[in-house]
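Entry 12.
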Amino acid sequence: MRSALLVAFVLSQVHGQVASAAGTTGRWSLIDTARYPGATCYFGSTTDDSLHRISVRAPVMFAFDATSSVNRQKVGWRWVIQHYDGVSMTWQVDKKGPTVLAMASDQYNAQWPSLTGTYNRGSAPLYGGYRAIVVMSWYGPRGGIQGSQRAIVAHYVDHYNGADHGANTYCADTLG
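Predicted 3D structure (tokens):
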């Protein structure tokens, strides 16, 4: 009962910044607030203070409620990391993560194998800033996408020296 109330509270209080929507979808939400950021920016320490990776929080997703009985369907999500291009002054796609799939119902949200997805920058060049977009998909009975939502993560926290520090509206390329 408490977990159902918590999910109801979260769904009523938290919703990502919708970038686009298409088709028929179920209820969804991102846990993405100043207190509970939707992504964590991980920085190196000592001499390397550059961005190493971004961990993006998985969305809460329910199946589309199509009938008076319990409805079940396959749902999926993935992260898309964009970097800010200072030349064209726009956000450009840097990398797309793999789609994670799970079953959901209109009463119980999907249970993901991991509550986050991780972007590793590796040796890619640094840009001025990075942001995450969560792409959610609802699948029809034959496997095709029946609906989708794209939400921009609005709250980020920096992680370095073993602890979280501050809150931001994107991930910077370096500390300071």
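Annotation: Residues 2-13 form the longest helix (12 residues). Confidence is low (pLDDT under 50) at residues 1-14.
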